[in-house]
Specification:
alpha/beta; Rossmann fold; 3 domains; 4-stranded parallel β-sheet; 3-stranded mixed β-sheet; 12% strand; elongated
Length: 550
């Protein structure tokens, strides 16, 4: 009788069961020589037998039905089948006489009713092993999720600890992953740039392949890197060490959302304002061209007829400089302002206990809400979709509170660094006015605002709140200089804890006068204006310490 040798392992991964096929084949050849069996061919495949659909196995059965051989030599019945369909095929071919014999070094079989009965039991045990293994794995996953451990292969920048079963930080790769977030958050780098940075840094995937652009995008979109992860539609708070903060992750998310598909142009350096403005009449893009030695900007007029005319670059430059002058701060004044912020930082350290207590109370409240949400879900008051959405929202806010507590614990106020960055950007505006670098002006305008419009040869855009306040104070200062009877100053009742009333009653002094005042709390409010919650906390602290200072 002729036989086929059939060997199988459960996975095609080279790292797992790497010696399984070779060892099976060696043992079976020795067994065939010992039993003096005639071997027609040796067939091997690396695929699980949990589900039907193995190509090599199906090919072997077809060749047996064609009469090439009458028996199969395998290491164990579980190598042939771990599911009821494939096991049934073997039993049926035995019943019909297509398969005359089965040989196993570790299992006795005879083509009799008793032998077929025992073979059925062996196939059933193999299926039970797979099913039970699946349940054990699911139970292990649930236990890991309860502990906040990711139940899978660690993402790039982390390592699976085989001893503790935890996710550990990869000291070398995590630094590069953090650098990717930092580079992308600036808005000056595309996904392709980040991919090239990783390639230059010799950082590749686990299989040794160069990371694709899509992989870089998934990395920058994965909440795992700031402490949360999603598993089967539900969000969990991980116990692994975050690589980035949620603030940095949110900045990258906004950059990715706003960027979309951007086409870069080789000649963009010749027209610094191209790609910045849109037409105020038809909302088409503003393009540029060179005519008689001058750069002209015009509407592309791709949607409809537009009456807007050409604008020379010199006119746009003067308008941009005019705005930059409103928000500029000389280097001498910048140094004084930064020194005052340092003084505010020292004072903030003594006032942070109120903010800390508020954040800790909020974390406690979030824990209570999560328990109530889980109870409502178990009682079927809320649906699974509502439960998952609300849980993700609460856990995200919990991470934010924890990061704020960490920042305060490290001795840095959450508003001080944005304040310093804002002051330095005002000084950068003054430098741009002096240097006249138009490309840098375009980058600066993109960073401080949005919705840049060109209409009737005039530019307009929506600056962020601090820059808008600075520009308005500068204009107010110009009005005061032209009108000596213009009244400025503080309200007679400055002890207000309401944010909107406080800001409404204030008459902000121009930037040129900021360095003359020893008390700088009001300047801090400018930066806090964009974050009402932090501003409210600070107003409460000031009121408890004797009222808002003027």
């Amino acid at each position: 009788m002729k036989y086929f040798i059939y060997t199988r392992k459960s996975t095609d991964s080279e790292e797992r069961q790497v010696m399984s096929l070779e060892s099976q084949l060696s043992e079976l050849k020795e067994f065939a020589a010992k039993e003096k069996l005639e071997i027609v061919a040796s067939l091997s495949e690396a695929q699980t037998a949990k589900e039907p659909g193995r190509k090599v196995f199906a090919e072997m059965l077809d060749r047996i039905c064609a009469g090439e051989a009458g028996g199969i030599l395998a290491w164990h019945p579980d190598r042939l089948a771990r599911n009821s369909i494939d096991g049934g095929k073997i039993i049926y071919l035995l019943d019909t006489g297509k398969i005359l014999d089965l040989k196993f070094p570790t299992f006795w079989f005879d083509s009799t009713p008793q032998g077929k009965f025992m073979l059925n039991i062996a196939f059933g045990q193999s299926k039970y092993y797979v099913d039970n293994l699946s349940e054990n794995i699911k139970r292990g996953h649930r236990q890991k999720l309860r502990k906040g451990i990711w139940p899978g292969f660690a993402p790039l920048g982390y390592l699976n600890n085989s001893r503790t079963k935890n996710i550990d930080l990869d000291k070398e790769k995590s630094v590069l992953v953090r650098k990717c977030f930092e580079l992308y958050a600036t808005g000056d780098n595309t996904l392709k740039n980040i991919k090239q940075f990783l390639a230059d840094s010799k950082l590749d995937s686990y299989k040794g392949n160069v990371l694709a652009v899509s992989c870089v995008q998934r990395i920058l979109s994965k909440s795992f890197y700031y402490g949360l992860f999603e598993f089967k539609g539900e969000t969990y708070q991980g116990t692994h060490e975050p690589i980035v903060t949620k603030k940095l992750f949110d900045v990258c998310k906004e950059v990715m959302k706003s960027r979309g598909h951007i086409k870069t142009r080789k000649a963009e350096k010749a027209f610094p304002f191209r790609g910045l403005f849109i037409c105020g009449e038809c909302s088409c893009a503003i393009t540029a061209e060179l005519q008689k030695g001058h750069n002209y900007y015009r509407c592309t007029k791709k949607r409809e007829m537009c009456s807007q005319k050409y604008v020379r670059e010199e006119l746009l430059t003067e308008q941009v400089k005019s705005f930059l002058q409103k928000v500029s701060l000389p280097s001498q004044d910048t140094e004084k302002v930064l020194r005052e912020l340092d003084k505010d930082e020292q004072k903030a350290k003594s006032d942070n206990h109120v903010v800390l207590q508020n954040l800790k109370n909020e974390i406690t409240d979030i824990g209570t809400k999560l328990d109530k949400l889980l109870s409502a879900y178990l009682d079927e008051i809320v649906s699974a979709e509502e439960y998952a959405a609300q849980k993700e929202k609460l856990l995200s806010r919990k991470v934010e509170c924890s990061e704020e507590i960490s920042e305060i614990g490290n001795g840095s106020g959450s508003w001080l660094e944005p304040a310093r960055a804002f002051v330095k950007s005002l000084n950068h505006a003054a430098e741009l006015v002096q240097s006249g670098d138009k490309s840098e002006m375009t980058t600066f305008l993109k960073q401080i605002g949005s919705n840049h419009i060109l209409f009737d040869k005039n530019i307009s855009f929506s600056p962020k709140s601090p820059y808008k306040l600075a520009a308005e104070r500068s204009e107010a200062d110009s009005v005061r200089l032209r009108n000596p009877f213009w009244r400025r100053g503080w309200d007679s009742n400055p002890r207000e804890t309401c944010v909107s009333n406080t800001l409404a009653r204030c008459r902000f002094r121009p930037l040129s006068h900021l360095s003359k005042h020893t008390n700088f709390s009001i300047f801090s409010l400018i930066f806090l204006f964009s974050n009402s919650r932090e501003l409210e906390n600070r107003c409460i602290v000031e009121s408890k310490n004797g009222g808002m200072k003027n």
